[in-house]
Amino acid sequence: MRVCFSVNSLLNPVPSQSAHFGDSGVFWVWDERVRDGMACPALPSTCRGPCRCHLPDGSGMAFDAVICQAIGHRALLALRKQGIAVFQSKTADIQESLQLWRDGALPGIERSACLAARRGRAGSGQSSIHHDTKRRNQ
């Protein structure tokens, strides 16, 4: 089984998870069978959702599951449509996340969390996209 992580950088032998899946555009896949990890390229285009996050290119390196701290709605739907299980971890430590996953202690991710809301206007708690749409409808 192979597990995909969105990571901050590939400079460390065991990278740390990014806070939002696809935000960094850098992916790392752990192969449980051979107990080793490797870089996974990102698709050339981003998710069509407001997050505009990158998605991993699983064509050359298929993976069976994703472990992340948060993920956007469209990315979550795209992975589920491919039959890829998505688990939520509260830690950025990949080794800790993998152990929790092996122990069956990671829950499936229930809700998406759009990164656009965090990139939005300071203090509003909404993305500029949602804010502008709301203004047009008033």
Account of the 3D structure:
This protein is of the alpha/beta class and 138 residues long. The protein has helices at 73-81, 94-102, 116-119, 128-136, and strands at residues 2-6, 27-31, 36-40, 42-46, 54-56, 65-68, 85-88. The chain has a single domain (2-136), classed as 2-Layer Sandwich (Nucleotidyltransferase, domain 5), CATH 3.30.420. Mean pLDDT is 77; it is low at 119-138.
Give a concise summary.
The protein is an alpha/beta fold and 138 residues long. 22% of the residues lie in helices and 22% in strands. Strands 3-2-1-6-7 form a five-stranded mixed β-sheet, with helices on both faces. The protein has a two-stranded antiparallel sheet with strand order 4-5.
Structural class determined from secondary elements: alpha/beta
From the 3D structure, determine the CATH topology: Nucleotidyltransferase, domain 5
Helix content: 10-25%
Oligomer: single chain
Beta-strand content: 15-25%
The poorly predicted ranges are: 119-138
Strand order across the biggest sheet? Answer: 3-2-1-6-7
**Roughly how many Å is the radius of gyration?**
16 Å
